[in-house]
Amino acid sequence: MKTKPPGCFLAALILFVLLSNLTPVVSAQTGSAEKGVSPHLAAEFIHSVLLADRTIYSEYIVERLSNTIGLNADENWREKETLMLPAQFLSHSAKLSNKQNTGMSYRLMSLWPINKNNGPVSEFEKEGLKKILNANKTSYSKIINTDGKLFYEVVYPDLAVTNSCVQCHNNHPESPKKDFKVGDVMGGIHIKLALGNSGDKLQGSGHKLAHKVVANYVHSILESDRTIYSKFIVNRLQNKNVLFASENWWEDNALLLPAQFLLNASGVIKNFSLGLDFRLISLWPVNPHNGPANEFERAGLESVLATPEKPYFGKIKIGDKEYFQAVYSDRAVTPTCVSCHNEHPNSQKHDFKMNDVMGGIVVTLPMH
Ligand code: HEC
Ligand code: HEC
Predict the structure, then answer these.
(1) CB under 6 Å to ligand 2: residues?
(2) Which residue spans of the chain are classified as CATH 3.30.450?
(3) How high does pLDDT run on average in the chain?
(4) How far does the centroid of ligand 1 lie from the alpha carbon of residue 190, in Å?
(5) What is the DSSP string of 184-228?
(6) What percent of the chain has pLDDT over 90?
(7) What is the fold of 1-30+275-368?
(8) Looking at ligand 2, which residue's alpha carbon is closest to its atom 24?
(9) 337 close to ligand 1 (CB < 6 Angstrom)
(10) pLDDT digit string, tens, across residues 303-312
């Protein structure tokens, strides 16, 4: 991605991708009624995406740019020429995602919040935050009945992974706790999934969520993080002439392109070995690797181009394993999406406009 491969290598790679890639099964748009995803696994998917994006933002953006060019993260980022804090990145994205009515919501909270709004609000949140203080507890979950509606609720610990977490919180005038240490649980991520009405008949082994619904959760986080990153980091800092996004972000001490943010997060996700995958594709790719890999992806791109609000669903087979796939439209949400692609020498289209569908986000889930 950083350097262009020579032509023959490229041709071989494309051939490899074509041959080795997914053989689509003719079940596009039918969904997957017979099987489903357990709420626990759905939460694992969601948590892994949140963690991957939190890692990319904290390490590749905030820490790297602070170390290399002295660009800091600051809670008053709006008034300054700085980056928003990782916690603010998550809460802004949560606000966008929670508005999309996918049946899933999430938030970052703590028993010792700097921002009072980040304290626990329900009994479950209070209980969950206390339970995860126990070092060998990787999460705490419960099914909760709220006025006849069932929710799967889970809290995952949020750890002080670096000294900067500890330093900033311990020294912050509004922090109620001043003795955090590296490795401590500083708070938790609460994820809440709607399971339906308590009177609904359960099928087989209990509550299962349709693959379609779970793909929508994953997409909603990816799209929200992508929008926050593009609007409040890339577009804003470019307009202020502070910093630019560059394909060679590492060498240039620059911001990652929005596509690279997503791709790197997708790399982190693979470490969780959950079988979850996501990619960014287009009918007019700047990078030929990002073209549709098969007929399913091509049909998906054409479909979201015609009806951007409607994702394209289907099942595919890789070897003898079945996967659920969904293609969502990817739109030009900021003027920098448009200008960079229209001006890029390798771009195959030079007349994108604001809000155009530029490509698609493909989410792949294993069919368990
Ligand atoms: C430069 C200072 C700074 C750094 C570094 C920092 N935080 Fe925070 N953190 C804050 C501020 C300020 C808030 C409140 C943001 C808001 O208004 O919602 C916050 C919010 C939080 C919250 C939500 C509860 C609360 O305190 O409001 C958690 C949990 C949290 N941070 C954990 C972390 C972790 C883990 C790290 C390291 C990966 C980290 N923070 C790094 C300043 C910082
Ligand atoms: C500063 C330049 C720049 C900006 C800003 C930018 N892109 Fe890209 N985009 C690229 C490059 C370069 C690639 C190819 C990355 C790679 O090597 O995989 C790419 C890849 C993509 C792809 C995958 C298909 C392809 O063209 O390879 C899509 C879809 C896409 N961008 C959409 C967007 C959207 C939507 C935005 C705004 C949210 C955006 N881009 C912002 C330069 C940019």
Answers:
(1) 1, 230, 234, 245, 247, 257-259, 280, 282, 285-287, 290, 330, 332-334, 336-337, 340-341, 344, 358-359
(2) 1-30+275-368
(3) 88
(4) 15
(5) -EEEEEEEEEEEEETTSPPPTTS--B-HHHHHHHHHHHHHHHHHH
(6) 78
(7) Beta-Lactamase (3.30.450)
(8) 285
(9) no
(10) 999 999 999 9
